[in-house]
Amino acid sequence: MESERSFYEYLQSFSETRSPIDFVLIYDNLPRFFDGALVTLQLTFLALLVGGLIAVPLAIARAYRKPFLSPAIRVYTYVFCGTPLLVQVYLFYFGLGQFTAVQESFLWDPILSNPWWCVIIAFTLNTAAYTTEFLRGAIEATPHGEVEAAKACGMSPFTRMRLVVLPNAFRRALPAYSNEVIFTLHGSVIASTVTLQDLLGVGRWLNGRYYLAYEGFLTAMVFYMAIVFLITFVFRMAEKRFLGHLRPREAPAPGSARVAA
Fold first, then answer.
1. What is the predicted pLDDT for the residue at 27?
2. CB-CB neighbours of 135 under 10 Å
3. 251 or 203, which is more confident?
4. Which is deepest, 112, 148, 178, 190, by most CB within 10 Å?
5. Which domains, and CATH codes, for the chain?
6. Quick one: pLDDT at residue 260?
């Protein structure tokens, strides 16, 4: 307790005499920022989880040019990849409520009138569209020889997809998916525009409550940077683990190899 009191007093003195930033207000409101970070992480990773589950069958249908399905999926991905995420959130949150049939449906009260669910739906469909496209490319990039070898072993199409094609595609899609995770995290700031108190929403609240210029935004920025650092670290470890065999290896120095007797 004594050390905490002395730290608080030092922080107050530093803010009043040496710093243009009010660190005392930031420190006092850190619990709100942690709550906002929890909301941001819930929105981001729930959307990524559900969107990833949706993207896998869609990517398979696109990669194998399934009749009727592939053109419909292509239109879906074009719409969600070709329009801003902010517009998509507004269409779900503000647009659907303009239709009487939607307001009278069984989905209105529990889901479509709730900003949380509108944001989740928009984020999920958006990330599913992007994931579908780069996962389709990863499936198509599966070496033909591996597929032919699986056929020669007598594997059924489902078994080849489960044991050969999808594991290979998931490994190759890791670098692109790490970017998608970070982009989805950054895109989650849109949630604050529809009344959700995510990280940016808490920063806006702090600045508006105490008439500050940048303390709230700077604190939110530090939180985002810390989360991105952790995400990047996790994906680098995963790439090192699962993509190590694809990295070029250094050639042995001349004369270093032993000649068998």
1. 87
2. 26
3. 203
4. 190
5. 21-241 (1.10.3720.10)
6. 46
